[in-house]
Specification:
Blueprint (H helix, E strand, L loop, with lengths): L6 E4 L3 H12 L4 E4 L16 E3 L15 H12 L5 H10 L4 H6 L4 E2 L12 E4 L2 H16 L2 E3 L4 E7 L2 E9 L2 E6 L2 E4 L8 H8 L13 E2 L8 H9 L4 E2 L5 E7 L20 E4 L13 H4 L3 H6 L6 E6 L14 E3 L2 H8 L3 H14 E2 L12 E2 L18 E13 L2 E2 L6 E4 L2 E8 L17 H21 L8 H9 L1
Parallel strand pairs: 1-2, 1-10, 2-6, 10-22, 11-19
Antiparallel strand pairs: 3-5, 4-5, 7-8, 8-9, 12-20, 13-19, 14-15, 15-19, 16-19, 17-18, 21-22
Length: 484
């Protein structure tokens, strides 16, 4: 770009692309900097599948109704109240109106595949997954004249009195100082930064460094460089706990980076999970899998060696999305214990106690059924059936980090705040601010809802700031305009 852009967008995933598209549609010139090479563009968005959507009646690929209050209660439950209700409801309402805009930019939706977490009512699935969504947005952005530079990580920002002045980037190996009238930060969390994860999680009472055993489900490029720079060098207002994250129990054989959704183990609620001592440690049937799957990464992270084992029998086969790797198979439970490297006596005591405690009623994994345990701790409150039908299967689990929740405190204008004062030209979206809505916990598809809502708001506000247009005195009016 030969002249200074109106809006600089830093990041290359869903939130960044939504911001770039909205700013361009508002008439601003836009430059987007993506740290990754073109082949790896899109950040964690490339690994997504769906968007959690509020709707009051059946809509295209969504069945039934998922009203605002139910969505809010689902979010309230998984976060344990650690959420900003006003911003959460903004995201929820925005999710009901964004799909037509997404379609205009080339995104296609499809009904969920069979067995896809029972979310046909709550989640709209992208045809071709997140990679197709990212590619569609890049095609639309380039067609509209958004300038894109790959292999362009930003190392630091110039900020004066809360106003963005310039970004210092390394573009394909060459340092550049890039000025712009306004800037949107959407460069992701710090989940790929092993040193920062280690610092956040520290050393446990067993002398372990838990983060050393974490796998990263998505991009290797989310190092948190700008996030730390904003928090430590510029004193930006922060939100969130650095140990909280969207963390899932995934196959221990998954790669260190970019394993994506196919490495997740989805059979947890159909069997039991034991630690390396062969003991259960949490209620596997607490709630529906889409609402509770993201607690299991943290639960496994708290076990010795940061490892767990999901155990099922043949009755469970066909009732969950199969993972990319086959499970360890055995014709008896003692054989399975040996093949998994677990202490056989403890494992068998755990399984025998669990099997004896099962009170089987009418099993239905699509409902909160009446199959439960009695007289065993921890209880299994739903879908409890004896594990007694060969062959038996076991999957070793490790914590898989999707994205971190420590971020920049913002409001419904998406402005970055310094000493509680919103910047007039620096905005934030996506993982860098998700902690405003997600203090802890997760429910399927809400990360894309947050990124889409705040990406669109940030892009609209940045364009207005760059063009010298007055931003709404009432921030809610600005947000409503951005998401309409």
């Amino acid at each position: 770009m030969s002249t200074e852009p109106d809006v600089l967008v830093i990041g290359g995933g869903n939130a960044a692309l939504c911001a770039a598209l909205m700013a361009r549609e508002a008439g601003a010139s836009v430059l987007l900097l993506e740290a990754a090479p073109r082949a790896w563009r899109g950040g964690n968005s490339s690994h997504t599948r769906n968007l959690r959507c509020m709707h009051d009646a059946p809509q295209d690929v969504l069945v039934g109704a998922y009203p605002e209050e139910e969505y809010w209660q689902d979010l309230l439950k998984v976060t344990g109240g650690l959420t900003n209700e006003a911003l959460a409801r903004l995201v929820i309402r925005a999710s009901s109106t964004c799909r037509d805009w997404m379609r205009r930019h080339g995104v296609h939706f499809q009904p969920p595949l069979s067995g896809a977490l029972h979310v046909a009512r709550t989640n709209a699935f992208f045809m071709g997954g997140g990679k197709a969504l990212v590619n569609a947005y890049y095609r639309s952005a380039e067609k509209l004249g958004v300038q894109v530079r790959y292999e362009a990580p930003v190392e630091r920002l110039e900020i004066v009195d809360g106003r963005f002045v310039a970004a210092h980037a390394v573009v394909q190996g060459r340092p550049e100082r890039i000025t712009a009238k306004a800037c949107v930060l959407a460069a992701g969390g710090f989940e790929s930064n092993r040193d920062w994860l280690r610092e956040a999680w520290g050393q446990n009472e067993r002398g372990e460094w838990p983060a050393d055993n974490f796998l990263i489900r998505g991009t290797a490029f989310n190092q948190g460089v700008l996030l730390r720079h904003l928090l430590e060098d510029h004193g930006a207002d922060r939100i969130g706990d650095p140990t909280q994250a969207h963390m899932v129990a995934i196959d221990a054989r998954a790669p260190l980076y970019d394993g994506g959704i196919c490495t997740r183990i989805d059979c947890v609620s159909l069997g039991v999970v034991v630690n390396r001592e062969g003991e259960r440690f949490y209620d596997e049937g607490e709630d529906f899998w889409p609402k509770r799957y993201a607690i299991w990464g943290r639960l496994v992270a708290q076990q010795a060696g940061q490892i767990g084992y999901s155990v099922i029998d043949s009755k469970a086969i066909g009732r969950f999305m199969p993972p990319v790797f086959q499970g360890v198979q055995a014709n008896s439970l003692p054989e399975l214990a040996r093949r998994l490297g677990l202490p056989e006596a403890t494992f068998m005591r755990t399984l025998n106690d669990y099997n004896a405690a099962c009170r089987v009623g009418t099993f239905d994994h699509t409902e909160l059924d009446d199959c439960h345990t009695e007289g065993v701790t921890p209880a299994k409150t739903h879908w409890a059936r004896p594990i007694d039908t060969a062959p038996f299967y076991g999957y070793a689990l490790k914590p898989g980090v999707t994205f971190t929740y420590l971020g920049l405190h913002t409001d419904d204008t998406a402005a970055v705040r310094f000493n509680q004062q919103p910047s007039s030209n620096l905005f934030v979206a996506g993982e860098m601010m998700a902690g405003n809505v997600l203090g802890k916990g997760y429910t399927a598809g809400v990360g894309m809802s947050i990124g889409t809502a705040f990406g669109r708001i940030a892009g609209t506000q940045a364009a207005a700031a760059a063009q010298g247009r007055s931003q709404p005195n009432n921030p809610t009016q600005g947000a409503s305009h951005a998401i309409a």
